[in-house]
Amino acid sequence: MNYREQYPPGQVNAVELCRLWSGPVDALERHLSANTWALSAVAAALIAYPIARIVTPAILHGIVTHFIVPDAVRTVLSLI
User: Fold this and answer.
1) Are residues 79 and 40 in the same domain?
2) Could you list the residue range(s) of the whole structural domain that residue 5 is in?
3) Shared domain check, 14 and 41
């Protein structure tokens, strides 16, 4: 019997749901190798870097265009 068969749909509350996934997730975390963790970190960085490179300038541009900012500050921000 696997974990999902123990709890029929509709009868699982938050505590039982945590117990349902806690054991397998803890076992998975214990058995992952250092190479797997490193690969996960590299994948997360590869995904996060372009998002940060797109979102951060967009936020700065939005702040600069929506508020009255002196031209000197606007010039410095455009150089960044």
Assistant:
1) yes
2) 1-31
3) no
For the chain, what is the domain count? 2
- Please write the tens of the pLDDT for every residue from 11-55: 556 677 677 667 777 777 778 788 888 998 999 999 999 989 999
Question: Is 3:20 a contact under the CB 8 Å cutoff?
Answer: yes
Q: pTM for this one?
A: 0.44
Say if residue 41 is in the same domain as residue 69.
yes
pLDDT at 12: 56
Alpha helices in 1-80 (DSSP H): 3-6, 14-31, 34-66, 71-79
Could you tell me which residue, 40 or 68, shows the higher pLDDT?
40
Cα–Cα distance between 64 and 80 in angstroms, integer? Answer: 13
54 and 77 both lie in a single domain: yes
